[in-house]
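Dear H.,

Thanks for agreeing to be a second pair of eyes. The structure we're designing against is below in token form, covering all 439 positions.
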């Protein structure tokens, strides 16, 4: 029955996906992140739904009447440079054939990111994109939260099989990144039942994240809670709510969970932590020896014997930073960091330039919650391999598209108010661009 429902839904959406590229992007996002077909037991289990969604998106580029244009914001430029550099490092990899297989997977994801950047232009597009991302991850938050409660926190929560977030650490950070997006939808929702439902989803997602027993998730939750408190306009109330929820969730978890979390401060005694540090040294030594890094699939016995302090303790890097460093060298790491720093810069500009515009309050709130989400990714990602996961790139798309909405709003206001008033109302960055172009 599940198989049939998923197939019928995809068939129902496909004609709309071909006509409108942003619909194809949403279909891809749902299939890529949620992996709904992996929850079936019949013919749909291994059906190529993602490939079908990708083909629909490519066809829509040719037939759609919607405006498609790739933005020129800095995150887009750094993303393209990063993709070009990954192709170079794959050609120079230790294991080019194995590395090329992984490169194809990454390029498929990033091709859809670029299509999303070109297609998502309006508030309606952004809201749909957020809802699809939230539902795709929130489903596992609801499921995992109920599971954590029913087992008293004694059993570990895992992600959907066959995807980026199958592991307990990976699903934990995905949930943590999605909670701020849920909060944005809650803030903007007009229906009281939608708001209440989102609150329940947020609480259960937080419980599920703790139920993964991921130590990186605990650090990411703490960092995210701090930023969410700073972003709140009512800091006292938000501080009380965050503190109450945190104490309640932690108090619910069993003593075994507390013992595992306590090992954060005693990492020297933990074999898993020391294995990760050994892999980090591997990445550091490879980057010092090769400007292009080792390429994908760099965690072999041969490379550990040549570059790691302990050649017998073979682990993947379990860090977005060290995995990029080892696979693509210092140039790759710099491009990766510039991509996310510039994305945070877009969020900062959005908050600064929409703070006092009531019509754009949604952009102000969206930028703030995206900042919180990216902090969760930056902290949690330090302890797991999610450098190429879709969700953070989706957040980058939301912010870049949001800034495009701001520019469109300013242009509309300028036409209605006249040149002098329009110039006075432009944000400083756009005023400078206007002056330079007129000179």
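And this is the sequence the design step returned. I haven't edited it by hand at all.
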């Amino acid at each position: 029955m599940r198989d049939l429902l998923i197939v019928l839904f995809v068939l129902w959406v496909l004609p709309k996906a071909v006509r409108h590229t942003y619909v194809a992007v949403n279909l891809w996002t749902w299939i890529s992140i949620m992996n709904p077909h992996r929850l079936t037991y019949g013919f749909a289990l291994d059906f190529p739904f993602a490939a079908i969604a990708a083909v629909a998106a490519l066809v829509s580029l040719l037939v759609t009447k919607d405006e498609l244009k790739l933005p020129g914001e800095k995150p887009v430029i750094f993303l393209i440079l990063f993709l070009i550099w990954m192709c170079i490092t794959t050609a120079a990899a230790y294991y080019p054939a194995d590395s090329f297989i992984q490169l194809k997977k990454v390029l498929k994801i990033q091709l859809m990111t670029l299509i999303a950047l070109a297609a998502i232009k309006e508030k309606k597009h952004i809201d749909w994109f957020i809802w699809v991302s939230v539902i795709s991850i929130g489903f596992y938050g609801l499921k995992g939260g109920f599971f954590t409660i029913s087992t008293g926190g004694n059993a570990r929560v895992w992600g959907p099989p066959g995807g980026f977030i199958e592991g307990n650490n990976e699903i934990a950070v995905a949930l943590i990144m999605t909670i701020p997006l849920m909060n944005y939808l809650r803030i903007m929702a007009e229906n009281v039942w939608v708001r209440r439902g989102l609150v329940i989803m947020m609480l259960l997602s937080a419980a599920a994240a703790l139920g993964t027993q991921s130590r990186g998730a605990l650090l990411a939750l703490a960092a995210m809670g701090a930023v969410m408190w700073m972003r709140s306009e009512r800091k006292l109330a938000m501080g009380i709510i965050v503190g109450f929820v945190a104490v309640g969730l932690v108090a619910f978890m069993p003593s075994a969970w507390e013992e595992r979390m306590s090992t954060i401060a005693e990492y020297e005694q933990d074999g898993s932590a020391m294995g990760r540090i050994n892999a980090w040294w591997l990445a550091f030594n490879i980057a010092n020896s090769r400007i292009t890094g080792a390429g994908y699939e760099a965690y072999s016995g041969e490379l550990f014997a040549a570059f790691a302090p302990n050649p017998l303790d073979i682990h993947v890097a379990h860090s977005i930073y060290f995995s990029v460093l080892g696979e693509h060298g210092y140039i790759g790491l710099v491009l990766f960091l510039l991509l996310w720093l510039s994305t945070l810069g877009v969020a900062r500009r959005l908050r600064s330039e929409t703070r006092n515009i009531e019509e754009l309050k949604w952009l102000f709130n969206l930028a703030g919650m995206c900042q919180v989400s990216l902090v969760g990714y930056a902290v949690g990602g330090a302890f797991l391999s999610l450098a190429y996961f879709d969700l953070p790139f989706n957040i980058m798309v939301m912010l870049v598209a949001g800034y495009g909405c701001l520019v469109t709003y300013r242009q509309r206001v300028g036409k209605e108010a006249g040149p002098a008033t329009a110039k006075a109302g432009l944000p400083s960055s756009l005023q400078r661009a206007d002056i330079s172009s007129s000179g």
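Two observations from my side: Residues 320-354 form the longest helix (35 residues). Residues 1-66 form one domain.

Warmly,
E.
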